[in-house]
Amino acid sequence: MSEVRVGVFVCHCGSNIGGVVDVPAVVEHARALPHVAHAEHNLYSCSEAGLSSLQRSIREHSLNRVVVAACTPRTHEPLFRTACQQAGLNRYLLEFVNIREHCSWIHSREPGKATEKAITLVKMGVAKACLLEPQEEAQSAVAPAALVIGGGVAGMSAALNLARQGFQVHLVEKQPRLGGRLLNLDRLGPTDEAAAAMIEPLIAAVVGHRSISVHMPASLAEIDGFVGNFRVRLGEGEGRSEVLVGTIIVATGAEVLQPEGLYGYGLFPNVVTHVELERRLKEDLPEIRSAVLINCVGSRIPDRPYCSRICCMQSLKNAMRLKARLPEARVAVLHRDQLTSGVQAERYYRSARQAGIRFFRYEPERPPQVVGESRAVAVVVRDALRGRELSLPADLVVLATPLVPGPDNRALSRLLKVPLDESGFFLEAHAKLRPVEFATDGVYVCGTARWPADVAESVSQAYAAASKAAIPMRSGAVRAEAITAFSDPALCTGCGTCVVCCPFGAIARQPWEGGRLVAQVNTVQCKGCGCCVAACPSGAMQQHGTTDKQVLQMIEACARV
Amino acid sequence: MSETSGPSAGHPRVIAFCCNWCSYAGADLAGVSRLQMPPDFHVIRVMCSGRVEPEWVIKAFAAGIDGVLVLGCHIGDCHYIDGNHRTAKRFALLKEMLSCTGIHPDRLLVDWISASEGGKFQRAVTEFVERVRQLGPVDARARTPLAEAPR
Predict the structure, then answer these.
(1) What is the rounded CA–CA span in Å between residue B44 and residue A97?
(2) Is the pLDDT of residue B6 over 50?
(3) Closest in B65, B78, B82 to A555, CB measured
(4) Best exposed site among A113, A237, A473, B30 by fewest CB in 10 Å?
(5) DSSP string covering A116-182, please?
(6) Interface mutation vs chain B, best among A551, A556, A560, most B CBs within 10 Å
(7) β-strand partners of A388
């Protein structure tokens, strides 16, 4: 290639970077680096204005390498690659430097040091960029079929949505029945419609759709492959089957915490969870004169710090249901913060107060005490607002327990190679930019597998996941990132270390000139981990985008003062 | 030992190799969470910690880098099935070898950080940078066999 001409684009990201790092100083230093033909800063490099400035500069300065110093490549690299491509540059001639997550945001109290670091990081990026080469992406077909894991309201909504778009769907449910947690509920708040009225027609539509194959009860034995070509082995009863799908949606839901040992649960028969109460509400409710509902049972504590989000509404709903069924009963809700966000929910809360339901705030340091001998008879609580201790009669105590991650999450996350968060729920690629996708292409998440969510949220997420999954299936092909390994046959001794090392069986030894065996990489099978490169004893194996030379140049640039 | 080989006194220069899927994402989460840490480390992103070559680490020390972190997915969680098993083996061996070459083995640390462990990333980086700061600048020129080795 002709003379290397690097363009450096440093993003202020509003004040996210520019408020800490002296961006103009970074640009000045970049301009002085060897091979840098142009350097500029943008208020937001990813904005329309930023991208068109980048493309204009590529043309005006005949740039043939681009360094963008901004946020994280995990979210924004594709955008800038496409911008380079549109300006006539191969999309692999871009090097992305993270000076936000890895610099300005974490060194905000040391702006001078942060600026020095950003200068070094840009220098490292330029050093690598000089050695970048254009790459071609391998293309592979996408099977127009999806695997949906979980037959609850989220999984069924996603499955039906995809089937109605014309895709084949394999819906896998581990229980012998579709419906998930909604089967246990009586009514749905805040509209008070029967859960069955929602879930039963959905089950019927899923079962009746010719493009949906329901595998039930079934388990996932093995999943391998990649977007477009996942081979999934299912265990159904004694039998085994294999399906080929292009995309996978995780909709495995969550469990409800069983509050063993808390507030007399398991000790007193009249201390129940909301799920148990709803079962009773469906049937015959015993005559009671008083009920106390306790919120945040086993959540927002050091061991389980998150808010389960839906329990406040569930308490409110069931307090209203009890009051409606037994208008003379005294119903109280003990909460740490009654969260009723949104227009409908707030209205619901007001009507609960009007109906005579009483709300008392307790502090976690002084949790309510359930009093009784063979049965609970009262709940003693210190009303935090009035600073007074109250004894509330309780024929029934209802505990609002959080949703907790499903017991299979760990195994499934390993099967799919997708991460869990610190609590054990599935972790999406980005909370705001990619809320229903995993970082792994072709795998999506919706419903309470991700986080406690109500029915409306779960259904919205299911539709979102389905439409995301439809993108590669509709286009019919995906391009694999050109980060594959490649071998130099002149250097390869045919030792086969790489063949053994490859986790994907992507390398084989094949005859080369003179009949000697040398390593050859199948670019469709190669996932670009680079393990074989590090293992190669003769330096024959390299990886596009992460060659030894590129990394050593970065190290050198980092070390040079 | 020379006091001038580091970029500035008391500020070691550290490289952290992070795998794309877990530890780099963990570093991103630390950033999003605004977890503050010493500015003396520089991340180089690789797809898998199994790509990191012992030779890079040796050359980094030779170039004057004072400490190297190799951060991957937890064992069992590797995006590439078992790439990090190789990382674990390779760098256990390299640590042994460093002792023999006069580079203190504490200058190299392999750790596992998941995409959700922003806090662990902060702790690992902070503790490592502090350890390397205590060790002082790596001195490639004045280095003699067993100069820094603990035994």
Answers:
(1) 9
(2) no
(3) B65
(4) A237
(5) HHHHHHHHHHHHHHTT-------EEE--SEEEEE--SHHHHHHHHHHHHTT-EEEEE-SSSSS-GGG
(6) A551
(7) A383
**Minimal Cα distance from A555: which residue of B?**
B60
Chains A and B: how many Cβ contacts under 8 Å?
A: 148
pTM greater than 0.80: yes
Q: How many angstroms separate the CA atoms of A54 and A91, rounded?
A: 13
Total residue count of chain A as it appears in this document: 561
- Beta partners for residue A468, in sequence order: none
Residue at token pair 């779960």: A458
Calculate the CA A251 to chain-centre distance: 12
Interface-testing mutation among A100, A106, A541, with chain B (most B C-beta atoms within 10 A): A106
Q: Round to whole Å and give the CA distance between A293 and A370.
A: 11
A432, closest residue in chain B (CA to CA): B32
What is the complex's ipTM, to 2 decimals? 0.91
Rounded distance between C-alpha atoms, residue A508 and residue A506, angstroms: 7
Decide if A417 contacts A529 (C-beta within 8 A): no
DSSP-derived pairing of the beta strands A517-521 and A507-511: antiparallel
Q: A447, A435, A454, A425: which is closest to A309 by C-alpha?
A: A454
For the beta carbon of residue B133, count every other beta carbon within 10 angstroms.
Answer: 18
Q: What is the pLDDT of residues A193-217, one digit of tens each?
A: 999 999 999 999 999 999 999 999 9
Region at A554 (left for phi over 0; alpha for psi -120 to 50; beta for the rest)? alpha
Q: Which two tokens stand for residue A258?
A: 């069983």
Q: Counting beta carbons within 10 angstroms of the beta carbon of residue B29, is it exposed (0 to 12), middle (13 to 18) or buried (19 or more)?
A: buried
A389-422 pLDDT, tens digit each: 999 999 999 999 999 999 999 999 989 989 999 9
Q: How many CB atoms lie within 10 A of CB A497?
A: 17
Quick one: which H or E segment has residue B126? helix B118-135
Cα-based torsion angle of the residue sequence A437, A443, A444, A448 in order, rounded to the nearest 10 degrees: -120
Tokens read off for A409: 């999450």
Q: Which residue from A439, A435, A443 is spatially nearest to A412, judged by alpha carbons? A: A443
> Two tokens at A239?
């039998």
